[in-house]
Structure formats: structure tokens, C-alpha cells
Description:
- This protein is of the alpha+beta class and 572 residues long.
- It has three domains: 2-247, Rhopdopsin 7-helix transmembrane proteins (Up-down Bundle); 253-332, PAS domain (Beta-Lactamase, 2-Layer Sandwich), CATH 3.30.450.20; 339-569, Histidine kinase-like ATPase, C-terminal domain (Heat Shock Protein 90, 2-Layer Sandwich).
- Helix content is 56%, strand content 18%.
- The radius of gyration is 46 Å and the shape is rod-shaped.
Amino acid sequence: MQTIGASKLDLSIVTLLLYFSVFLIGAATVSRLYQLNHVLAYKALMLAFLGHCIASAASIGVFAFAPLELKILSSRLRFLGFSIISPSMLIFINSLYFQWKWLDKRSTLFVLYVPAAITWIITLVPALRPLMVRDFAAVTIGAFNVLQFKPGPWFPYHLLSCYLSTALMMVLAFWAFLREKFTRRRQLAFVCLATLSTTFLDFYAVIANPEWRWIMFSGAAFVLVDIAVLYAGLKHKLFELVPYATEKVFQSLSEPILILDSDSCLQTANRAALELFGLQREHYGQAIDVALGDLKLGDGQILVKDKHYDVRSESISGEPGPVAGRIITLREITRWIEVEKSLNSHLKLKSTILSMISHDVLGNMRAQAALMRNFPGKRDDATRDLVEVLVNSHETVHQFMRNVLNWEKMHHQKFVLMRSAFDLKMFVDQSCEVLELTASLRTLSIVRKFEDARRMVVKADSEVLGCILRNLLANAINASHEGGEIEILVRVESDELIFEVIDKGQGMDEDRVRDLLSNSQLPKDPILSLNGGFGFGLALSQYFTRLHSGRFWITSELGTGSRIGFSVPLTL
Length: 572
């Protein structure tokens, strides 16, 4: 047995006491973290401290056991704990502070623990143990008998994997330290400084091979990490799940959120906000106007990357009362704006239809008023005729109410064309019947012409076609001079049903025709005749024609008359 430095008595005793401290603090920390083991970050931290407990217990065994075989076994078991500390601390820092998602995947975790698994297999299988360390020799340092050994083939790889995991952990920790604020920054500072000190001490012991290496002083330095983590947990809420969960939820929110201080400087933002505005962590601390450039955030709506957002700002009150900052939340409303535009479009069409209905109802009411003016001077037979006319006029009002129902169906996107077979001549006669009173009051005659008498039964939506034909006929009556004639031409060509209404009234110029056929807007100043307007009925007719996948056209000459037609596909 070799004796090294009896003067190391104090150091050896301090080392043993430190190992006891590492074990006790590690065990207490593991017990505290056990209730949080469903969270990956705390599960990794618990595993790291379990490594501290294993390493410290084995090191105490080296000091305590007298038989050489037990000392050697205890010395080997230390590497079980050492192998799991570095990868576990890396996972802890990443999961709690940095959050590289790929580092939390099962495949990555498996790779990180492969070196530890190999160390465990080599240590626990007696035949493989020389691959880690070999050639043990007893030495006396201070008051204790300890061991020296030579590294085996796997020992350098074990050290390399531990140092690489620790180096990556320190890089992530430093990066997280720069972007974190307040409590979380203090947590990182304590843990990282302690880890860095312990790592350098261990690295120096391996490279320089000082005498105190063999009393395992560098392993006892883990007490610095234990104290730092314990202090951060008790003083700075490291062991509290609520702040961790809050940060997790904050980062996972799909709505962009920015947090500003009282000077309107950006303090933090979730991932959605960073991606939306193209911000980096370096923008933290900058004034929000500088960080966002030309984009100004205020309560209201903004457009960012072709998406509409509703911006809301809420003050954060500090203690005892002044405003400590603001939370700015953005909610995407692109879909709502599209829906609003669609609703506005429907409302505009609804207004058009209601205008048309009012226009037509007004014509019928004028006819009723004219009849009522003549009522006192009529005899009994004439009175009966007038009552019949009034009934027919009210039937017209009923037809318009049916138009209102059709519009309501379209407004709720439930409108469906109802195709059925009907007699073409009877259909035209019924459509003209409700308007013959108005025509007769102006001494107008309505002539029906059918060019193909062999195809008088067709299949289409007669209700929609009737609405179109009545509107065209009503406009022709309003535009015609008294005593004139209106022609209705009906023909079937191939698979199209074609209607044309021809009048010899006041007509329209090219600009008016172009405006009427435009889908962009409704006419604001319709041509007025003695008995009504012109244009609203045409707008509705064009819309119904499009619903029927048909065509609509107008041929007119000012002062001569108009020829308005439409065609719809049909099934014979």
C-alpha cells in the first residue's frame, strides 16, 4: 500500500463530509421532485440528482470499506451515477428553458443515454469491468485508504460523452440566460455557475492528475450544484410547476401575444408572435415601434402577411398601483371578415330584391287606387268586374311574397332550383295575367308568340322563370307609351329555353345598357316613365338567370324601344 501526503488529512475529511452532504441534499431533492415526475424537465432533474446520490454513496463506500474488493466495487459503482448526470442536466435545461423540440423526442433521448447505458452494462457485468477502469492500487491519503486506477478502453469515451453533454447544456443555458428575465434568469445563473465550476474542477483533475484526485474531491464538488439547485428551488421557485406550466401554455398559444414594459419596450413574446412579426430574441428590450418597424400596434384591426388581426391591449398593474406594462393580444379575424363581406353582399342583394318587390307592389297599389277612384261611378255589373280585378291584383301581391320566401332561402344558402315539367303556353299566360290590368289601364296589348309549337312541355324551375318574365314584362309596360304593343317571344333551341320581351317605348342609350348589365352596382337613377321605374327588376332577373346557369342580354335604342331576353338550359 502506498502512502501519499499525510498532510492531506483535513482535505480527506472535508471530502467525506461533502459526499455526505451531496447524498443528503440529493436525496431530499429527489423526494421533492418526485411529485413533478410527470413533467420531462423535472423527471430529468430528478434523474440527475439520483446520479448524485449513487456517486456519493459509492464514494462514501470507498472511504468506509476496509476490504479491497469492496473498495474496488464501490469505486466502479461511482461511474453509474456519473454517467447519467450530464445528459439529464442537458434535458432539464432544454425542456424547462430552451425547448429544442427535437431534443425532447424519444429517439434523441435514446441517443443521449446510449453512452450511459454502455457504462452501466460494463460496470454491472464483471467480465466487462476492465473496459472502464483497471489495475487498482490502494493508497493512503490523509486519514483514509483510497484507490488509484488506470483507465480502460471505454473510459475516454465515457468522459467525452459527459463533457459533450455538459458543454451543450452550458451553451443552451447561456442562450436561455440572455433571453430570460427576472426569476428564471436567476435560476439559470445559480445552476449554471455551479455546474461550470464542478466541470472545470473535474476536468482539471483528469488532465493534471493531482494528488487530491484520488480522494475524489472533484466528485464531492457536486455539492455546489446541489446547493445551487436547492436554493433556486426554494428561493426562486424552480420547484414550482405553475410558472413552468404558465410558460408552456404561453408559448403554445396560437394567438400572437406581446408583453411590453411601462416604457413600451418589448419584454417577451410567444412563438406565434415571433413568427408573425419575424422577431428574434435580440429584439427583446427594444421599443415596440423599433422592433416592428413601420407596423403600428393599437387597438383595432391590422393586416399582417395578408391576414387580418384584431388587436387588443390590456394594462398590467404593478404594486401598489402604477401601470407596469401592457399585454398585446392579436386574434386572427380573416375568416370573420370574409364572412362579413359575404353577408354584406347578401344584404346588398336582399336590399335589391326588396326594392324590386316594393317597386312592383307600388304598381299594383296604383292600379287598385285607380280602380277605387272609379268605383263610385260604376254600376253593379261593372262593380263585380272591378272586385274581380282587385282580387287578381291581390294575387299579384301574394306572388311577390313568394319571391320574398325565395330570397330568404338564398340568404340562408338553402335555395335549390326545383325543376319540373310544365306547359309553356299556360306558363306564359299565367305570368302575363297578373300584369294585364296594369297594361289595360295604359291601353297596352301583350302579344305572345311561340316559334316551336311542338315543344310546348319543358322541364325547368317555373317559379324562378315566372319571376324573371314578370319583371321583364313589368319594366316593358313602364317603359312603353300608351296605346302601344308588347311582344313576348318564346322558343326552344337545342337544350335552351329562350324568352324575349320587346317593347316600342322610350328605350335606353348604350351607357344605360352597359350599367344595367354590370354586376358591380345597381342603377342609382332609373329611367322613369309615367307609371314607375326601370332597372331594379332587371337586376333581380339577371341574378335569377345566373342561378339557372343561363344567359341574359339587352338590346335597346333610345327613343325606339328595347329587346330584353334570357335563356336557361332545360331538360326535356
